[in-house]
Specification:
single chain, 57 residues, mainly beta, three-stranded antiparallel β-sheet, two-stranded antiparallel sheet, binds zinc ion
């Protein structure tokens, strides 16, 4: 899990992997798409150290 500042509800909240709806490789890591607690779809890009990350959603 990780924290994310939602652009819709303007809150920083803890996001669980059960909320993740998609993963995609991007230039700087892995883009994680998830549904915020408010229902808004958000995207968070995992950092550079995650080149070998395997997320079990
Ligand atoms: Zn939100």
């Amino acid at each position: 899990m990780f924290t994310h500042h939602c652009t819709a509800c303007d809150k920083t909240q803890l996001i669980f992997f059960s909320q993740v709806t998609g993963l995609a490789e991007v230039d700087h890591g892995t883009a994680v798409t998830f549904t915020c607690w408010c229902g808004s779809e958000q995207t968070w890009v995992a950092g550079q150290r995650s080149t070998d990350a395997r997320v079990a959603a």
